[in-house]
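Tokens for chain A. Residues wanted.
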């Protein structure tokens, strides 16, 4: 089994369900020390109870003063850390002509600015201690291809992938790697509210989606994303940097859906 007991990994937005929870579950299983960040301290404190070795840290990642303070707290309790998963993010499903400026600013503030701020202070402490480290950014299939009403979200995830490639090149000489994962539809309760915007039965919609819109006909679980993040944080991926791995059941390789190209059986 993969041994990540040497890693101390900060996971932003790790206190909820979905991908963040899957990342924490996998890293905990492989023995890493977790630092779970949430904007609300109570949420972080509740999350760490599920894991063997985890520290809660509160910070609004869009506020530089709070991010700086968070890294100070981590340093006091754990010393330098060597892993970061930029998981925190928000979504928006709205026609481009109807998006309000505050909605655009909020989404980019979390999805892009927050990722940059946390990465900035993570890299600073790596360089100060002259140690290598790894960053995994959570993107989305929307960073590769999208659909109507996702322009703001999709463009923010494209920015995540561009940032990933750029800093991977910039920081490689210091032994710092940066990669991204791009989840497709992840079968988690948090996605059902979104699905209800266009489907009365989220479970039925999800079953049809996996059978028609994915090359692989099983649900993508949060821990599938977590296992991919664990691989990218480990020495098994020591020669991989600047890449995005799509954890999407093959969604992004399909030119047409199955109903279009395959006879019913």
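Reply:
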């Amino acid at each position: 089994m993969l041994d990540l007991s040497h890693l101390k990994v900060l996971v932003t937005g790790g206190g909820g369900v979905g991908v963040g929870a899957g990342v924490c579950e996998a890293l905990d299983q492989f023995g890493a020390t977790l630092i779970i960040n949430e904007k609300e301290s109570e949420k972080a404190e509740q999350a760490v109870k599920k894991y063997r070795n985890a520290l809660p840290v509160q910070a609004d990642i869009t506020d530089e003063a709070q991010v700086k303070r968070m890294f100070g707290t981590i340093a006091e309790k754990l010393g330098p850390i060597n892993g970061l998963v930029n998981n925190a993010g928000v979504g928006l499903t709205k026609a481009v002509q109807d998006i309000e400026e505050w909605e655009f600013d909020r989404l980019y503030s979390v999805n892009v600015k927050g990722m940059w701020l946390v990465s900035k202070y993570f890299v600073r402490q790596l360089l100060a201690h002259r140690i290598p480290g790894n960053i995994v950014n959570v993107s989305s299939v929307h960073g590769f291809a999208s659909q109507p009403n996702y322009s703001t979200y999709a463009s923010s995830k494209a920015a995540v992938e561009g940032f990933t490639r750029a800093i991977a090149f910039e920081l490689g000489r210091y032994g710092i790697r940066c990669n991204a994962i791009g989840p497709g539809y992840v079968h988690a309760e948090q996605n059902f509210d979104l699905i209800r915007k266009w489907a009365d039965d989220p479970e039925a919609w999800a079953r049809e989606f996996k059978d028609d819109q994915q090359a692989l006909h099983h649900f993508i679980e949060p821990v599938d994303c977590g296992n991919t993040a664990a691989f990218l944080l480990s020495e098994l991926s020591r020669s991989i940097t600047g890449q995005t791995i799509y954890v999407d059941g093959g969604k992004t390789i399909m030119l047409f859906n199955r109903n279009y190209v395959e006879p019913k059986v």
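The radius of gyration is 18 Å. The chain has a mean pLDDT of 93.
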